[in-house]
Amino acid sequence: MTSTHHKKLLHTEIVPIRWGDMDAVGHVNNTIFFRYIEQARIGWFNSLGVLEPVNGVGPSLISTSCTFFKQLAYPGNVEVKTYCSEIGRSSVTTIIEMRPSYDPEVVYAEGTAKIVWVDYTKGKSVPLPNEIRNSAAD
After folding, report:
1. What CATH number does domain 8-136 carry, 3.10.129.10, 3.40.50.2000, 3.40.718.10, 3.30.1490.180?
2. Where are the domains of the chain?
3. String of b and e for 38-74 (b: at least 16 CB within 10 Å)?
4. Rounded distance, CA 22 to CA 92, Å?
5. Residue 2: per-residue pLDDT
6. 87-130 pLDDT tens trace
7. What does pTM read for this prediction?
8. Cα–Cα distance between 79 and 84 in angstroms, integer?
9. Structure letter (DSSP) for residue 4
């Protein structure tokens, strides 16, 4: 699924592969990849200081996907790189690449996530915080 969109590196997160991430077949369960994506997204938000909702306004994940190229296994770490694919008035679409520490030159999975900034009380989108916009700008 290697993207043909323009992408800018936003954040790199190293996530440990835990023994409990594996399933009965002996590889990381496919649902865990979404937790790795989430951990990287939260790490990015933390690095910008925008994780905590301010005045009832904050992020909402509206779509996510993952394509699995190779199986991950314990032990090791996963380098999760988050790139900006598209930025709109109230949303940002990210592309995520995952590489294990034991095979760092190979992308084992690639995903996407679209995040919209919303006013939780009104249930309506609001402009992205400047920190997100500046991080994603060229």
Report:
1. 3.10.129.10
2. 8-136
3. bbbbebbbeebebeeeeeebbbeeeebebebeeebee
4. 31
5. 43
6. 999 999 999 999 999 999 999 999 999 999 999 999 999 999 99
7. 0.90
8. 17
9. -
